[in-house]
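Quick log. Single chain, no ligands specified.
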Amino acid sequence: MINLHHLGLHGPEPAVERIDVAQPLDLATGRYQDWREEAGVPIGITVGRPRFVRYRYIQIQALAPWELMRPPLKGIDDIPIERRVYRQRLTRHEAEILAALREVARSYPTLPGVLLCYEKVNQGEACHRRWAAEWFLERYGWEVPELPDPQSATAPRARKPKMPEPPTLF
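-> predicted structure:
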């Protein structure tokens, strides 16, 4: 068990001060596995590169949860603490994050950006991409929705028509 008391992570989470910053591009969040070209510019916000991804994407390291992948927090498995540490990261790297998002907007002026990582948040998993979306809303007033799960967005399969019962002789 990791002793986190000395890290000062207990007690209420500090409020985020709201400031007025123009949103450089529309943003959404999603999974690497679910990204489709029509969704927008793929932006990786993970510590490592996913081996299964075969498409090109932009990486914004300032949005990656580095502190949660290194001691003393690696393997902590405490969602409220992880969320707090990540949100502290967003505050510390705010200027770098805004600069990176502005650069994406300059490079792709007509497309939205999609912040990507691994977790299945549509199935209830906690994830830093949604913590970033919450922080963007609290800090700047930016709405950053989660892309719909493509499995739930597909139309249900048509059922085979039921064959009528054959007539009987008796």
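The two ends are 76 Å apart (CA to CA).
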